[in-house]
Batch of 4 targets.
Target 1
Amino acid sequence: MSQDTYAKVFHLIDSAHGEDPKKVTVNGKETPYELLYSNKMSNYLEKRDPSASIVLQVAIRAQHLRRWEVPRDSYPMTKVGYHGWRTFLKKRQAELARQMCLDSGFQADEADRVGHLIRKEDLKQDQETQILEDVACLVFLDDQFEQFETQHDEAKIISILRKTWGKMTERGHDLAFEIPMSDRCKELVTKAVSGD
């Protein structure tokens, strides 16, 4: 795969992220949220696997591709609705990314592999899918957990943390303990991990 092909697909992905209407302010600068999210995904991939393949790097960067176009409330606000929404998003995002790869000059098998990873197929058996899951969990803990903690009761938070922890590898756990968190969030993570 040529450097031009790699650069083109990243440009397409980041341009799509740049259209996210949700903005956040970072260091005094307004940034589309999904662009910030995808950069965090890439940064955590560098920590988790510095020698990651290009297809994994692309899948990591494209994991939330155009996610804002299918809001959570477009599905029933139930557990079943949530899982339906997540399943649809994974398939949609995988196909969008696969097409961007083909448009950039990827071989069909490489583009298919990107889609496979974004759909998180063969989790626990496929090492690259597991790395993507580790990275997604790390970005949740880094980027969303502080706000999430204020919106739910302790029992639900601990339940979610235990599920998150169970999806991760030991290397993912080690990196999670390095994330700067408030004392309250650290306390909740400790409770979840220790089983208290």
Target 2
Amino acid sequence: MGDTDKSLVIFDDLTLKIAALLQNGLGTQPTKTNSENLYIGIKLCGDNYSLWATLTKKVIDGRGRGSHLTGEPSPPSKTDHAYVRREQDDQCVFTWFILNIESSLVNNVLHYPITKALWDGLTVSYRSRTDSLQIFDHKKLNSLRQGKDTLEECWNKLQNIWMAIDRKDPNPMKETRDIHIHNKKIQEQRLYWLLIAIDDKLEPIKRDILKQDPLPSVETVYATIRR
């Protein structure tokens, strides 16, 4: 495996986890709402909103019920013969949500009248919280310095923060080319964070690394500095 491929390990690992969780949920796409319980593999606890929301939307879209999240097309009027069926479908999807939310949060969402209102309410409540946590993680990255830590200890701290950010903000790209561009940008950022964090006595090595074109992966740089 080349250095570029190695640089995508964190993102590929997350992709594999999402694929594993979705395998059962997306295996079939019934034309009618299934009254059976639906579990996506993780429950919303607050801090995991980004990953949970991504999985939930994919699974519900896979069941052919994405309109209950978007509200499009508009639901039929009460005089329409399809109204009752739509209401039944919506209550079923609403129940799927409740099954995939931690019990401590359920009482906070039962007052929503329909699934779309619940989906929008969760977005308002937890996306902003996730964004705040991401800002905090980035602040930790910007202030992290090796100090008295060994190089390995500093690297492990960086890795832990990066993985936390990946969980809260999965790669949003769909096309292979876009995924590659996004991952390359993230890798460059992480290279800079590593060089900023490590001991100032390594300045000559840092300058030599930054002169390279293209820039090496952050994993390659860590291995080089460690040697």
Target 3
Amino acid sequence: MTGFISFGYEAKQSYLSISGQQARGMFFFDCFKFLHRNNFIKTLHIKSVNGKEMKALKVFTEALRFLKDDVLKTINENITGMKFTASDFTWVLTVPDSCDPSAKPFMRGAAIQAGIVTDGNTDNLIFALESEAALAWCKKLPADGFITETRINLHDLRSPEDQHIVIIAEDENIDFAVHEDLQGGRLKMLHRSSVNDLGGKSVDGKYKEFLREIFTDGVWDEYEKNYPTEVQRMMYEFSLLKKGDGDIQFCCPFNLGTLACKHQNIEQLFEGVEGASWNEGLIKISRNKLRSFFAQSLQGITHNVRKIINKGFNIGCIWLVGEFAQCVILRKHITDEFMEVCKVLCPFRPRESILNGAVMLGQH
């Protein structure tokens, strides 16, 4: 089996640049966060984009190994006179609030296999709940550190009696946590819950369903089967476009257009399709249609937040973080729905809030 090749954005770009046949022989894991209640022990393997599976422990171990090696390389390249090793540091691993109890020993085992810690120095490994990490970071930010349309006074948010809802909006799942501030800066967990399949990937799924409606008569299915890396490229492009709140347009891939033309004139495919149009090789999707892709996700998130508020918590603020929180449509919806109940705040660069908060927790 081919060894570890690349990680993160580089891995995505590498996978999208290779041919379909070569891609089918590789493992490309995208959004493999899976540590959720009643699900963790059963999920011994993780499925890659092309359907192939690998042991979960192997996937997590190699991801952690890359991060560890990259950190040490970066540090050692920028210092002189000494060389650091993994044992010189305290390492913080974040776990979802909704994780199964077996997540921590699993992650500890992956960290040991990755060389982050050894059986003899596991005290150098700290676990942090994602909501605690995100809240720790957000509460330290100045007032201008948030994406907001109104003036805010963070002093009002720091009362020892404040209770907060943290929404961690990711690609796969949405996690909710309620924390209360205690004296001395400590937090008390009052509630946690999670919903599956309402994150950014659910929006992507609606988009793909719409493309299948446009490219009928099996055109899209044939394209998806024969050109999987091109489909991935289209989905990656959409993941960037969906962050806005307006009309979007993109070039129709050559192979998709070729397959469509075998059945009928491609312009005819768009006749009678509400929310999409064709213009000399460009596909344009209207703002209203884009918003419709979010509808199910927004409805589910709103329902779960209202359930939490109706439990009688004294909520002072909703904090929105995570990958999916980069989408303007999501942020505006949550703000519009709950601004009369409490403050709604989303930090700039919301996907990094958990990471930055984890570093803070490790330092203190």
Target 4
Amino acid sequence: MKIFSTLFKNKQCRLEKLKFNCICISKEGCAALTAAFNSNPSNLKEMDLSENQLRDPGVTEISTLLGNSQCTLKILRMSNCSITEEGYKALASALRSNPLHLIELDLTGNDPGQSGVEQLLWLQL
């Protein structure tokens, strides 16, 4: 992940779609990815991190990217990433702080618990 994050830091990077399905991304990998995009806001429109064991710490790292006002993501897929209530709360908080950009969020196959569902439902209001 750190090698890829170096690529993203390049000001000439024009990547719009990123698919890292089922490649064992950890919290540290999510942190490296987020740091790269936060240091050089890119044209990234779609990111698919499905089928990774991101868990709540990894999702919390990705949430900092979503909270960045320069974030250009329109589609974020994190299905089957072992996300629970805590991760859903981090996502909801980030989306509340920067609600205008994301148009599709796929979280299928995770376990949000009642509180996590409620957090995301409030975003619809």
